[in-house]
Design a protein that fits this description.
The strands form 2 sheets. This protein has a 6-stranded mixed beta sheet, with helices on both faces. A 3-stranded antiparallel beta sheet has the order 2-1-4, with helices on one face. A hairpin with a 6-residue loop joins strand 1 and strand 2. It has a single domain, classed as P-loop containing nucleotide triphosphate hydrolases (Rossmann fold), CATH 3.40.50.300. Helix 3 runs parallel beside helix 5. The N terminus and C terminus are likely disordered. It is α/β, with parallel strands linked by helices. The chain has 7 helices and 9 strands; from the N terminus they run αβββαββαααβαβαββ. The protein is globular. The longest helix has 18 residues. The relative contact order is 0.20. It binds adenosine-5'-diphosphate and magnesium ion. The site of adenosine-5'-diphosphate (ADP) has 12 residues, from strand 2 and helix 2.
């Protein structure tokens, strides 16, 4: 297994760390529903994802990992508190630019083949067709799944679909990568390949990386570990907003 800290990667991480944070959460909360049936999914979370940092988000099922990642992606609005993206356009409470999300569940469009699924976000962002196809092909190659390019999502295993979803995010060259249990359906070797690719792409793009996982071996591949419990986050002492 390849380890994480090639010299080039750490120097990129050091440079990026001097810049504005990718995400800053201040007393962030998200509640689903109201009244007696309300579920508090995220509560009192204050944290900063520094540019170029690589964070594992761990915690039991139901502890709020997916909700926090969706808030960080700007896909959900907080019930209270604030979230900003200083290094990604920084619109206060607005939609952050250049975020790539690997969703926990199925997210491929069933009518498009794998190569088209990976290229679609690029086409929607006005990338020329030829370049979108080339970037799609390159991303599939990095994930070791070139041979799936012509397949439809229904022809894929869960693990193959998960790797396609990672390729789709990489092809769009985000500055913040949020991956929600991206190795959950993969065997040991494929899981480490996905983490290798995410770490390498993060270093090349200067992107911050937040990866939720149940697997302590996977969590150990990232530089920092944040643990969620009942919607709250336990941060190591040096990674709060004060740093
Ligand atoms: N859309 C939703 N509607 C209602 N409850 C939700 C929704 N999404 C998540 N929850 C609840 O919020 C809590 C946190 O869920 P989630 O963020 O998915 O945790 P995790 O990803 O750690 O498993 C759970 O109790 C879950 O049932
Ligand atoms: Mg989840």
């Amino acid at each position: 297994m390849r380890r994480r800290t090639a010299a080039g990667e750490s120097s990129v991480a050091t440079l990026e760390a001097a810049r504005d944070p990718s995400v800053v959460c201040d007393n962030l909360a998200r509640t689903y529903g109201t009244g007696a049936t309300a579920v508090v999914a995220v509560y009192g979370v204050s944290c900063a994802v520094q540019s170029g940092s690589r964070i594992a988000l761990t915690g039991p099922s139901g502890s709020g990992k997916s909700t926090l990642l969706h808030l960080m992606a700007g896909l959900e609005a907080p019930t209270s508190g604030t979230i900003t993206w200083p290094a990604l356009d920084g619109h206060p409470q607005g939609h952050p630019g250049r975020v790539g999300v690997v969703f926990q569940g199925p997210s491929l469009l069933p009518a498009l083949d794998v190569a088209e699924n990976v290229a679609l976000p690029l086409l929607l962002a006005d990338v020329a067709e030829g370049e979108a196809a080339a970037r799609s092909g390159d991303a599939l190659h990095r994930l070791g799944i070139d041979d799936l390019a012509d397949k439809l999502p229904e022809q894929l295993s869960g693990g193959q679909a998960q790797r396609v979803a990672v390729a789709r995010v990489l092809a769009s060259r985000p500055r913040l990568i949020l991956a929600d249990e991206p190795t959950g359906q993969l065997d040991h070797q494929a899981a480490h390949l996905v983490i290798d690719v995410l770490l390498q792409a993060g270093a090349e793009l200067g992107a911050s990386l937040v990866v939720s996982t149940h697997d302590p071996v996977i969590a150990d591949r990232l530089d920092l570990q944040w643990t969620m419990r009942d919607g709250r986050i336990d941060l190591p002492p040096t990674t709060g907003t004060s740093t």
